[in-house]
């Protein structure tokens, strides 16, 4: 079923370039599935792969996630996500929805701490329609005041349905990074409905520029995608990088309930240091990310210590910084004991050759799942091209995982053990120790 959802000047020469005819010709040819990238003179990065995929998936991605918000624009990235598909300079909400439905496609908007992504998925014969409304949605927003007002119950509903575990991870980021990466992916409750049209236009113009953008596609010819990217009416400008430093701290959100969710994190590294980041990625899997089989056990080096609760090792890597730790949730009494045990395990975290071998096997499985799945590959292309200005091929990622040694993972574990901690906790916290009581 076709959909226009929000998760997270016009196409001026569409007819002249003949997108639909070009797409059909590309589909008939035997194109290379290898990743291709082009950086335009205006710094916009174009990345594509697998032109013969049966469905065309194209994204316009901006470095406009919540880390870029200021005190005057907190929650703007969440509003951008919710506003995906609303009226633009050239199309109404009804027109966008109706035409995407008629094309049998989907148009989605997603947002996280670093990125806001506008994506369309259509069959190749409907590519021209998909690109037309993707461009309108991603570059022609008008943020009509009455349409923004209609988003208020939508956003409130999202906030009301957030799992406690997600709230704990958000609180952990606030405690660890304060501003920048500390800004929540979700709009603060007290600011819901407070974002004016002017605020949103200013946020978009400051962060959605060619220097901070990429166009990524799977199932589309690369040169066609380059032509589409060249047509986008976007301002240039680098904007602010909003670097975030790690801090120790805690944020506790008490609730009237019987359960607790707690996220504990130490400083890690970002993806701008691929070798070190891969070591943390392997360490996360060696430490335990949940059972691999139905009703299986959490048998990682860290999660063995976290009994009586749901638990997982945590690695959130960003461009320039990261968090490594764990998250637990369960009955309040058990959660408190698990936090104490988990912190002790973090401070003495050790991994064996067997742990690393298991972690590398799981990491290689994740690489395969991402790069061999069209949706996952599309997401990877958009994320890496926007954040890093390049895209890692599957062979690059496999080689990076295989190059990780036990010594590399042990060095990452030592970095975690020597780092100060940050904590985010939500729920009945009567049994959850304070940071100052954890050693």
From TrEMBL:
The keyword Ribonucleoprotein does not apply. Gene3D superfamilies: Metalloenzyme, LuxS/M16 peptidase-like. InterPro entries: Metalloenz_LuxS/M16, MPP/UQCRC_Complex, Pept_M16_N. Residues 45-189 form the Peptidase M16 N-terminal domain. GO terms for cellular component: membrane; mitochondrion. SUPFAM superfamilies: LuxS/MPP-like metallohydrolase (SSF63411). PANTHER family: CYTOCHROME B-C1 COMPLEX SUBUNIT 2, MITOCHONDRIAL, METALLOPROTEASE. This is Peptidase M16 N-terminal domain-containing protein. It comes from Anopheles dirus. The lineage of its organism: Eukaryota, Metazoa, Ecdysozoa, Arthropoda, Hexapoda.
């Amino acid at each position: 079923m076709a959909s226009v959802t929000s998760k997270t000047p016009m196409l001026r020469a569409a007819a002249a370039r003949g997108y639909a005819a070009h797409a059909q010709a590309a589909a008939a040819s035997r194109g290379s599935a290898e990743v291709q990238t082009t950086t335009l003179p205006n710094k916009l990065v174009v990345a594509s792969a697998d032109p013969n995929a049966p469905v065309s998936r194209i994204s316009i991605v901006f470095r406009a996630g919540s880390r870029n918000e200021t005190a005057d624009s907190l929650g703007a990235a969440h509003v951008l996500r919710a506003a995906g598909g609303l009226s633009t300079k050239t199309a109404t909400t009804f027109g966008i929805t109706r035409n995407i439905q008629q094309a049998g496609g989907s148009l989605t908007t997603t947002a996280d701490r670093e990125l806001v992504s506008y994506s369309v998925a259509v069959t190749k014969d409907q590519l021209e329609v998909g690109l037309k409304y993707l461009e309108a949605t991603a570059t022609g927003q008008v943020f009509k005041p009455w349409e923004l007002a209609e988003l208020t119950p939508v956003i409130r509903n999202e906030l009301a349905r957030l799992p406690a575990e997600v709230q704990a991870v958000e609180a952990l980021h606030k405690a660890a990074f304060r501003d920048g990466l500390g800004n929540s992916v979700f709009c603060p409750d007290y600011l819901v409905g407070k974002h004016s049209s002017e605020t949103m236009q200013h946020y978009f113009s400051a962060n959605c520029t060619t220097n901070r953008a990429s166009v990524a596609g799977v199932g589309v010819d690369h040169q066609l995608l380059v032509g589409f990217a060249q047509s986008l009416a976007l301002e240039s400008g680098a904007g602010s990088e909003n670097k975030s430093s790690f801090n120790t701290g805690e944020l506790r959100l008490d609730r009237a309930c019987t359960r607790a969710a707690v996220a504990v994190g130490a400083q890690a590294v970002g993806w701008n240091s691929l070798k070190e980041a891969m070591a943390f990625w392997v360490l996360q899997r060696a430490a335990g990310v949940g059972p691999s089989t139905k009703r299986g056990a959490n048998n990682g080096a860290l999660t063995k210590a976290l009994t009586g609760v749901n638990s997982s090792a945590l690695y959130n890597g960003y461009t320039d910084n990261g968090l490594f730790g764990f998250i637990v949730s369960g009955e309040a009494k058990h959660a408190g004991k698990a936090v104490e045990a988990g912190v002790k395990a973090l401070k003495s975290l050790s991994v064996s050759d067997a742990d690393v071998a298991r972690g590398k096997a799981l990491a290689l499985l994740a690489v395969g799942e991402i790069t061999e799945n069209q949706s996952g590959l599309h997401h990877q292309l958009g994320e890496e091209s926007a954040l890093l200005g390049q895209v890692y091929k599957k062979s690059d990622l496999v080689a990076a995982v295989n190059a990780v040694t036990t010594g590399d993972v042990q060095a990452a574990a030592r970095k975690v053990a020597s780092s100060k901690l940050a904590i985010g906790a939500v729920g009945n916290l009567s049994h959850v120790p304070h940071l100052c009581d954890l050693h």
